[in-house]
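Pasting as-is:
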Amino acid sequence: MRSKQELDAAIRRERRAALVVNARSRRGRRRYAEARSRLTGAGFTLLGTFPVERPGELEASLGAAVDLAPDLLAVGGGDGTIGAAARLLAHRDIALGLLPLGTTNNFARTVGIPLDLDAAVGTLAAGKVIDVDLGLADGTPFANHVGVGLSADIMARAPAGLKRVAGRLAYPVTALALLAGHRPVRVTVRSGDRVREVATHQLYVANGGFQAGRPITADANADDRLLVAYPVGGPTRRGLLRATARHAATGHRRTLADEPFLTGGEILLDTDRPAPVEVDGEVRGHTPVRIGLDANALRVMAPPDAPDR
């Protein structure tokens, strides 16, 4: 496999790319034609273009794009779409190009990709190839996070139409609808010899630096060899709402050394009853779950000043 410097040089020289856009993401259908024209306008030769219109077509479209052997796979959509692309591209000689067309775009924010489509395409044309960590949830790669509790219910039930209309507000709207009947779980979190137990409606283990479109802390990123576990509030519904608001307002001022964060290269989660687990916005099984790291597993086209270990 080529080094990332060699891959970077090939992208700049050959401009060989493929495009997959999830038309079911918030802005996917509306911006697909524009994304295609912007890429060709930036000098890319598109070996294939794949607008994903139906549920279940994403993985097949991504696979067909990879089979064309581009140097760059530009993927438009939200975090679920990007997570699927990351799983497929792990340890491949292809760079992922992010076109943030989803609701919260957490991974794009973590890597520093502009949310404006023109600026994002500009990053693909003039950025650099970096490699970032992926998480592993019971062996399944993920880009952003694992969620236990309310978020799994939200991801399963948030209407696609509401997400297109309301954007990231669709998630708190759905959460409020579900919260009245939601029961907290008691979660045991283990990282090395450290153990914490917490009763909460929601616990995350993050690989990246953003959640719900907001920074988790000022010093979390996707290339730091760390997973970050943290509950959002305690056992009461009021506590969850207060913690959510506090996170939105103060995340950029907190550090990983602060409470309630627990960091490590491997984190084990167990609960007092089987609880659903969502991985990058898709429900994938139940607790217990073992979460690890795959260091430098994914190559991404990022801004020229992006950190790269």
